[in-house]
């Protein structure tokens, strides 16, 4: 309570921020998201994460599909690729395989990822491509002005569900856990500090990392996934959760309506690039196959 | 200087930033005008960002006689955001009015205020839009409605009608929203009452006896949805895409009420697949999309042609290629709609030219599809999809489905789903009809439907020939000639939304004693070639204006008739301007003989 | 006296309302600077009145508490609420370009006094007796204010007054139609109630029957000279720099003496045409008195023009409504008398406006050869007053304006002899005098006790929610209701301004921006989403990359940027901020907080 | 200099318009911006009484066609209220928060009707005559053959009164010290002129000053004016005609000398060399009588505008303040005033 009372001295604060340097990862142009949109938090988080990891701007590529979230690349000063609706994964895979030195971050909204793009995710996860996929989940189609998405809650009313959405929403964490993505975590736009930390870990991970980020759509969802509600519901994973235990992770993921924030599962296994190297090695050691 | 027409013919332009409520204000204005009994044509332009900072502009032309397009010059400009409105000051005619905020709160750079750009001949009305809203409601949110009220007050439009529309518009929101906006509106009216009116803009009484109550304000998309519903559509599958989403939203709201089925699928591919499945099972089924979605759907279009399944796909074109210009209009998906897909996959393509046409074509589409057992594409564009017009629908439903005839079989006769008949149309049965079971496939097949390449040539001929009579389908206008009869200096061939401007061009040109005729072509596949050729015989020059770069329709025409045409193409994302068509018309008249080969000009070229 | 920083105070309803008990105090120059910058009215008030807080109390329907907060800075709220020169209103944020008219701060001060309960109890927290004795010469605003504070701090105070009634200029300078005498009596009495001995009709000086200063110095531990400026400044004329011409000239008088004698009870008359020379409140009072005494044509002659004279617009308008004319750009250069030595005309020189004087007024430069005459039957000259020192038996150091010279400790060149009010500053305003009285008292206490007992700090209180609505900003300034012209005429006793009723007071109070509310963004939790900017009513929330720091350590202007990679913070420009609270409501991460930052006195 | 000079003119009356035209003639490249609170392009105020002869469409009232401004590249900015002028930074600030820089500034904001202080609170009950809209309102609110009450009767008002009586309305004039403003005449001549007005059919009330105005009842007169002596006069409209006071509020922070109006030297320059003034807003130094004096009158105002513009561009011509100031009766008994010349 008293942190509200303690005076903040602007110039000290600004020095601190400038010294820290993450501002340089931002583009010059202001994001065009609705004022209040949770995605601003992701934007802030990613710049902080890249800065913390010391990844040079030119070595980072941000790939996205179609949707509000997918406008992201325009607002960071890294390499970016705004591809087609739902086709993010294959493009990102291609870039990574072409140059292992790049840090590839794929970004999409819940529609881009789990509706039209749903078919691509399992394969990117299965192959353990060394990329990071961040899904900004606001449970709504923002860019087409407010229709339901695969993660929209049951009972939600939208322009396309005027009599309430009766479909059961997807459970991205459970899906990704069952796809065996090798790093799986969840964060929330309303917790900027934690979000930045999770992004840092996800990008640092070797292999396919999936970060699910809960975000309100301040324009088209005034009732369900609002800051007010989420602030009440979000909670942290228990300290003693074992991130190597897939079943425990699934139990945690399915424990509450809004699953806890934190790292669910971490696994160390060869990436697609490493497998390809392995195939090359075997090929070199194998005797030539007769015509 | 453009003088206002006799009677009422006023065009309002409301311009603001996304989030200013520009479109909403325009919507209330157009609905009120329609309810007053005026003919209305309206068109909104808005940016893809939801509430980013892009430009929104809503143009509403209200008149007591039917008009066919927007005017180049607006009579009134209402600025809700100067940065966006300043470029549009020029479109206001002399002694027209410019309404703007004269009490802005943000620091403006020199020249950042619209008052620096208003010509002396235009009439400025500066007032505290934000202040009116805040005083009336405590919030700035109702600026748009306050400005609307001011305009209504200035041009004495009856507030009562606006109150009614506002109440309807916000009926689903909490009561306070309606009350606030009504207060803001009245405050605007009151503010206008205190000013001295100097412009010569005046809203008279509508001439048309038709009371506003019979007239329905519809967008092209709304008309398509209404046509579908009156035709008894039973199943709809869709995937959101600008500018077709509003058809889907209408279906989502209305179809379940009619006992039909609505589903938002995960993508266009599954949307059309489900539609095809339902069509195969005998339901009247449809989907709607735009160019990018249609591109995904072509594989299923092919299957629909191959398996001779009736269903309807409405396509609202936007700027392309690829993701292109999602919120700008264009007519560049003609080739895709007519030819898209693998193999020789001819289908029926209907392109209405105004909102009334959307309503009629959509209403008849299922019957046509069922008659010829083929997919039907309804090809419109953003300009037509989103533009509002007043339509007076017939009192009794003329599109209701006729009872289906089950094929009659003789003793021991084997049912052949794809029997080669004279008309090319085979007896079609649907699951559930006894004794008529069969299999359809995407593979080439024989008359029974078994995979076989033996009859590929015959089957191709059948699938093409069965469609030709459609150009004279009873009750459907597939083409129509307007203007001077007999020989003319210039004939214009038009399709889709652009035909509105072409018709306005005709009326302007007739005032300049040039011999002109125009023909609208509604059925683009199969093409009514004979009528088109006969029309071209009468024309010294044939001019084909359309909103794509290559002149896709012109190609089709000269391809089908083997005669030269002059192309007038433009891809600015905006409708073609009557003045541009007129300019090209005059250029042609001045040039002696028809050019030996077909020339190619862009509207820009004409302007340069 | 100012509230001391102890929980005891949070108990009483009052300035801490609207926030919980959580607060801190700061002595950082940037926090003092914030209050100085952001509460312009308080900064402009010589007595440092905590204006936003007392107006907030009126809005809360607690005129009594409001009166007390006033009294902490100024023991005479009911009086100042009527006749204050209102330096605060000139600085009020509501009056800044684009914001409309200033809040009627002064009228609200009066409202607090008028509307408090009949049985209102004063709130005085007394110090233990110090055993020290203090003599104060003069019972004008400075003397009274000092006497009150000193007695509060436990000293034994005696006030010596030459006239029969206390109050100085308040009682003998300001006419009753502006300041009813029962108000004057009540508040001076309240100020002196805490055991102050008041000796009226006693003159300090060297004459016979008068008490010499030396004996006071012997009998008291400290003496305060607060005798003000009790002598009119002579009218300098072309061939007569010392203005002898005035003396012995019939129907020509100094306004100061005219009013003094009138209030001593002498019957006064004026001729048909009255000319007043001067530009201050005294000049206007003379004119308006003359009007009431039946003059038919009253004219005030100004050196500059009415835009530049140090009186409130209301006073000028009321005077005009009473048919008083103001004529500008003229300096009297000679007086014309008829044979029997009565004034018959004044000769003026035409002026042109020159540059600015340091006090923010304009210079007037006479134009050679532009003289002209204006006829009159009575001449009243009110071009200012000066101090007189003949009461002193020991010389004290004087400054170049011939006023007593005092150090930072308010002590004159004589050990233990202090001075305050007009006697130090030269003719000034009542609120200035009150302010000085208090400061001098503070200094004297420190000197008497050998150490400062209290210091000023910034108290930063948590405020739970915005206390205002945007709608308040559209309320028009409420003008002071006044008596009809007809009822004023020929009645010197009839108070012109009739005061706000409770509803009017509360409506006017709503207009106050409550500038002491500090809106700030916790940058660590800000996600730069601009939701706040989206709802801002003015250009008050800015994307910044820096801020100017003034030499004194306080903050200057924000440096704004629209380049995303330079936006170090989104920050509320408290100088643009009108405290409407819109941003607070929409912030997704709730990183906007509100505090009430006030200057308070604290025990050392 | 690289970029063309920017001349900003505040006010679009005959002084401002005359200045703009002169400036354009003198420099084909310069930028010219006119800031006005008015909603019309330039028209001559002295034509306004003709509205009562049916010349009521504002387009007929214009002195030049609107295209004139486009052709001469004069940016006419209407509904613009200047709230502050910074003479040092050479910037003006408009009510809508826009800041506009200038190289030279010409203030022609003219004057607004003066209303005696004791009637200020009655403003809502009065009809102005200062702009086209104002006179149109008067035209609208005054019933055919109705009764107009003029307070003061300055020369602008008298012009209108004569038009009213000529076109069949009845007019009452209640005199004040400002009657015949801006002329200052002997009591004897004053009497003559008032008599002449009476001959023309104006009812002249020269007894007591007006102290009140009230809205009458629906049945009776629309306005009731009360005089000091208690007499009441009924009419349909009340028009204040007590001369003009210079509109200078927005100049108070500009750091230039102001008395009643902007103080200017004979070249019409103020105490800031970048700022000039012309027309009813300025007081010009009269070196003979050693006073700053106003020079009202349509002709003077126009000449001042042109002259100031010339001087802004470097000519050094003085405005001769010894302008003829005469009001008289011709043999036909008509009032002739130098104020009306144009």
List low-pLDDT spans of chain A.
none
Number of helices of chain A: 10
Task: Briefly note the CATH topology name of chain A.
Answer: Rossmann fold
Cα end-to-end separation of chain A: 79 Å
Detailed description of the structure:
The complex is a heterotetramer of chains A (291), B (608), C (604) and D (342). Chain B is of the alpha/beta class and 608 residues long. Chain B has 19 helices and 21 strands. In chain B, strand 20 (566-569), helix 18 (578-590) and strand 21 (600-602) form a beta-alpha-beta unit. The longest helix of chain B has 19 residues, at 175-193. The two termini of chain B are 22 Å apart. The relative contact order of chain B is 0.09. With 604 residues, chain C is an alpha/beta fold. Chain D contains seven helices and 22 strands. The longest helix of chain D has 15 residues, at 298-312. The chains are: A alpha/beta (291), B alpha/beta (608), C alpha/beta (604), D alpha/beta (342).
What is the structure about, briefly put?
The complex is a heterotetramer of chains A (291), B (608), C (604) and D (342). Chain C is an alpha/beta fold. Chain C contains 21 helices and 23 strands.
Topology of this protein?
The complex is a heterotetramer of chains A (291), B (608), C (604) and D (342).
Chain A (H helix, E strand, L loop, with lengths): L9 H11 L18 H14 L7 E5 L14 E4 L5 H11 L4 E7 H7 L4 H6 L5 E6 L34 H8 L3 E6 L3 H13 L4 E6 L12 H7 L12 H8 L8 E5 L5 H14 L6
Parallel strand pairs in A: 1-2, 1-3, 3-4, 4-6, 5-6
Antiparallel strand pairs in A: 5-7
Chain B lengths: L8 E9 L4 H14 L3 E7 L9 E9 L10 E6 L2 H4 L6 E10 L21 E5 L1 H9 L5 H12 L4 H11 L5 H19 L22 E4 H11 L4 E4 L6 H10 L6 E4 L3 H13 L4 E5 L1 H17 L3 E7 L16 H6 L8 E3 L4 H18 L2 E7 H5 L1 E4 L64 H10 L13 E5 L4 E7 L3 H13 L5 E6 L1 E3 L3 H9 L1 E8 L5 H10 L4 E4 L8 H13 L9 E3 H5 L1
Parallel strand pairs in B: 1-4, 4-5, 5-6, 8-9, 8-10, 10-11, 11-13, 12-13, 16-17, 16-19, 19-20, 20-21
Antiparallel strand pairs in B: 1-3, 2-3, 2-14, 7-14, 12-18, 15-17
Helix pairs in contact in B: 1-5, 3-4, 3-6, 4-6, 5-6, 7-8, 7-12, 9-10, 15-18
Chain D lengths: L5 E5 L3 H13 L4 E5 L22 H4 L5 H5 L2 E4 L4 E5 L4 E4 L4 E3 L2 E4 L3 E3 L18 H10 L5 E6 L2 H12 L3 E6 L11 H13 L2 E4 L4 E6 L7 E5 L4 E4 L1 E4 L3 E3 L15 E3 L10 E3 L4 E5 L4 E3 L4 H15 L14 E3 L5 E3 L5
Parallel strand pairs in D: 1-2, 1-7, 2-3, 7-18, 9-10, 9-15, 10-11, 17-19
Antiparallel strand pairs in D: 4-5, 5-6, 8-16, 12-13, 13-14, 19-20, 21-22
